[in-house]
# Entry
Amino acid sequence: MKKTSAAKKPPAARKTPAAQKAPTAAKKAPAAGKTAAGEKPPVAKKSAAGKKTPAMKKTAVVKKAASVEKPARKAAPVKKIAVTPPSGESPTALVRRARRINRELAEVYPYAHPELDFENPFQLLVATVLSAQTTDLRVNQTTPALFAKHPTPEDLAAANPEEVEEILRPCGFFRAKTKSVIGLSKALVENFGGEVPGTLEELVTLPGVGRKTAFVVLGNAFGRPGITVDTHFQRLVRRWQWTDETDPDKIEAAVGALFPKSDWTDLSHHVIWHGRRICHARKPACGACPIAPLCPAYGEGETDPEKAKKLLKYEKGGFPGQRLKPPQAYLDAGGRPAPPLGAA
Ligand code: SF4
# Structure
């Protein structure tokens, strides 16, 4: 992680990372005054990006998963581990700070939902595999033609690979992805009676399906809690100093130790939505970030509010979302559906 200028950090952020008093500092953050440099700290919750929409219903969100993801050799469940803060913060302070960030994010994204269009577990599984190395938007623009022609695992298992390749061409890596989705469809037919299994252990036996894809399906099609560690999740939890692990399985375990299991799926949604809209990889929009007072990495991105606002994406920036058929709650919050392939 890049070093952050202390002068740019809001008071709460400055105190938080190493600090044993992090939760106390964080609570005071919104009311805190100027930084050492005289900059006003960002205001939590009330920014354009963080406007509350209390009527919105919370739903799940889907993350990208890798079609080329290697199946896990062993589908070991997440081990319960002790909370081990990477900085000098106490375990209790870290748990409190992490949970507070999640609560704030739940207010910022009350309409968070899976960003892949799907109508059943099979469609979600296939769409998640296709989402590797491309955007959910591109997958959503491609899958209507695929599922219209091959609606079931039986249909896709028996499909002509060349025809499927043509349909999947817009997703990139279309030959490998064709092989993956036909292969997993065959495995569904041969090993699971044409039904998507509802356990981690079974899902990771499917070709091209690893833990990440499995958790997306379990969390969003079966309602079973899981943490999905994608690229956004990895980046943000390191910025927040929730863990300094770099291995996805270890990140999953370290972050899982900070939250009750019942929070895991929604937590994944909140973190990934924030990574896609505000806390970008190269230029996080710190000046428009509703959780800036809680963030040890404040200042890593653009701190000028007006400039930061221009960096916001999807509904936070006034643009269409990724789904062609988003949930009603998203539309009610002012979100707009994505255009079909070729329309924009
Ligand atoms: S945009 Fe990211 S790095 Fe910047 S304050 Fe927000 S969470 Fe922290």
Notes: Residues 1-76 have pLDDT under 50 and may be disordered. The pocket of iron/sulfur cluster is lined by residues 239, 278-279, 284-286, 289, 291-292, 295, 297-298, 300-301 (CB under 6 Å). The CA atoms of residues 33 and 162 lie 63 Å apart.
